[in-house]
Amino acid sequence: MAMSQMLKGLLEGCLLAIINKGETYGYEMSEKLQTYGFTMVSEGSIYPVLLRMKKEGWVETVQKSLPSGGPKRKYYILTEAGHQELLAFKQRWAEVSSGVDRVLGEENEDGTFKKES
Q: How far apart are CA 90 and CA 99, in angstroms?
């Protein structure tokens, strides 16, 4: 499975978590993802996800002027529905990651799986 396929489902939850920490704009989210180790996520790939999240009612946007002038910047804010979706994502992630950890924990040092008794 390609890394991009794995990331597709995780990106929404990660973006919700980033926005939950405070209103933020697209490029800033991309930079934060990079600092968390998501080096394979490009800035352009998050905008379709943000648009879908807005259509779902999970985020709202507000336009703000920059102190230095120039074009307004679009900031994303979590809605109550977004908070609920983030909580649901955290629960789903806990279930999936613990299952994967259990499976991977059954590997031998050479990568083969332990045989059942």
A: 14
Q: Which two tokens stand for residue 92?
A: 């789903």
* Residue indicated by tokens 């990568």: 111
Give 50's contacts (C-beta < 8 A, 6+ positions apart): 15, 26, 29, 59, 76
For the stretch 27-72, pLDDT in tens is 999 999 999 998 888 888 899 999 999 999 999 999 998 878 778 8
Give the other-Cβ count within 10 Å of 108's Cβ: 9
32 — phi, psi (to 5°)?
-65, -40
Find tokens 């994303």 and name the residue: 76
Q: Measuring CA to CA, how many Å separate 57 from each of 30, 63, 69, 82, 114?
A: 21, 17, 30, 7, 46
